Amino acid sequence: MAKTQLKLRAKKTAEDDETSPPAADALTAPAKADGAEPEVFGSQKKKHDTGRYWLQVDRQTKGSFATAEAAEAAGLAIKKKFSQVQVAIYDRQESSNRILELPAA
User: What is the pTM of this model?
Assistant: First the structure.
């Protein structure tokens, strides 16, 4: 068997290939005038919940409310539509959790 040399194609760089994805620095938004850092698209940001009462569905926070009544009304609406899920209201100041149940009919 004769040994032959393999011919490989030359590698293309990102500058040569117009169909290649943009560089990581191209995914950032332009700098803001107030001096804040540019926002990176595609990254997950933590939402800052400002309300005292958090509505939790199956132990996942879905929203925050300023009053317990507003959180309970939203929680009961979810519980009526989806009775199999666990709906709770978490009080941030007291660090207490209250599970909502549908009223007995």
Answer: 0.55
